[in-house]
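Hi support team,

I submitted a single chain yesterday and got back a structure, but I'm not sure I'm reading the token output correctly. Could someone confirm the output below corresponds to the sequence I sent? I've pasted both exactly as they appear in my results page.

Thanks,
R.
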Amino acid sequence: MVQRKSNGEVFHHETGYWLWDAERNTVMQSFTIPRGLAVLAAGTWNGERDDEGRILIDVIARLGDEEWGIIQSPFMRDNARTGEFSHHVRVGGDRLFYQETTWVDIYDHLFEHTDTNRTGTKDMSRNPNTSADSASSFLQSIRKAHAYGIGEFLEIISELSQESTKKGRLGRKTKELVTFGIALGKQCERCICIHADDARKLGASREELEQVRKIALFLRSTPHDDEHLWKTWKSAWKQFVLGKGALATHERELVALGISIIMQHRKQIRLHVKQALKFGRNGAEIIEVLPIALLMDGAPALSQIPHLIKAIEKYSH
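Hi R., thanks for writing in. Yes, this is the structure output for that exact sequence:
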């Protein structure tokens, strides 16, 4: 269940069940969403477990499948069509991990939306203050994000789509190049093809697309634990940004920022926010990268809002 922060109104509520057909060794998940959508997903289970003995369950549903499919209203089919849903669950002891992925075609833009989460009493009991402190910090960051003008796109995916694809403080072509960069960062072949084509339709040149590919390759080589290598990488990146190329310096930084958010790399987020501000962008422009990352990466990108807001506030002054 999801509620609007402004008035507490429930605007998204899923109701469903998990079922087990012992005769066919089939696990089923069925649920409905009150926007005119119903899903019946399934998968076989023959006792699969991982190396730690945890039960592994996978179910999937596809639009048009006669057995395990997706039914949606004409409006949803024409404007926000769900083509595929998959759900991976790993459970053992008192802990559960899940990963849901939904392929949604929203206003002729295909998005892979993934949500992941972990639950368990052990995770909550390690430090009883951590969850409350993190939640408080997160909510403060959400409120600050609203102040930058991103508003209610945080409340619903379809609104996110319109926010991320329409012209705002950033042009539509720039946003599509950022989306293309994130698709490369996720190594999602379907997304790469779709967003490369969309960028071309908005006027992106072959040279611009090639430079986005170089940025994604550069980000993929990011060192994570070696501070000396990080300093070397950062120096090389700054030289790359100032070099000749089809994209403006600030565009390179915004593409890199989008990839950094889905990488959940705090140093990268700080670096590219600082550099984008240095090259003349402002916080309101930089924040427009966020809805694109949320659409492409779901909940993992959502967790980076506090780090993005903190970086904008730190380097804007």
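A quick pointer for reading it: The longest strand covers residues 80-92. Let us know if anything else looks off.

Best,
Support desk
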